[in-house]
Design brief:
33% helix, 4-stranded mixed sheet, 3-stranded antiparallel sheet, 171 residues, alpha+beta, 27% strand, hypothetical protein PF0899 fold
Length: 171
């Protein structure tokens, strides 16, 4: 008997420690690359904690789980996948199937109601504007106009977060 618990979850990040020998192929040499690894490592530990807590609360063993990483979340999805596979070894999640998907970013014009792919709006921008929008997506309204009504009143509808989308438990 399988039970599907599908939900969207926020999670608290917990401190994580590791040693260079734990990740011989993953530990980058530059300071900025090491900082990125720590960023993703904390995120992955939070995902694992959330999935384990869900299994404990619902009373089952995790068969599989799915994680969504938003385009605008500024996480390296390949590193998230690698760390999820590495860190769950020796834990109750070791045999579970893991799926990590990239969630597209959508933008809605609040004037006319049309929705657009985020990249459709930032594509025509200058390199400096795209860089600014990358770090602060809310500035999109300052740099772009709706292709349909020419207004500049947008809301980002998705693709900004990292979330546990689904956890499938065995009874």
């Amino acid at each position: 008997m399988h039970r599907h618990d599908s939900f969207s979850s926020g999670f608290a990040l917990h401190p994580v420690s590791f040693h260079r020998n734990d990740y011989p192929n993953a530990l980058p040499q530059s300071r900025s690359e090491r900082t990125r690894l720590l960023h993703e490592l904390s995120l992955v530990q939070g995902i694992i904690d959330t999935v384990n807590e869900t299994a404990d609360e619902k009373g089952g063993r995790v068969q599989s789980f799915k994680v969504g990483v938003g385009e605008l979340a500024q996480f390296d999805i390949r590193l998230v996948r690698q760390l999820l596979n590495d860190i769950r070894r020796g834990t109750p999640l070791e045999g579970a199937k893991v799926t990590v998907v990239q969630e597209k970013s959508r933008v809605k014009c609040l004037s006319c109601g049309r929705s657009w792919d985020f990249h459709d709006l930032v594509g025509p921008m200058s390199t400096d504007e795209r860089e600014m929008i990358h770090f602060l997506p809310e500035l999109l309204s300052s740099c772009s106009r709706c292709p349909s009504c020419s207004k500049s009143y947008f809301e980002i509808e998705g693709g900004r977060s990292v979330r546990v989308i689904e956890v499938v438990l065995n009874d």
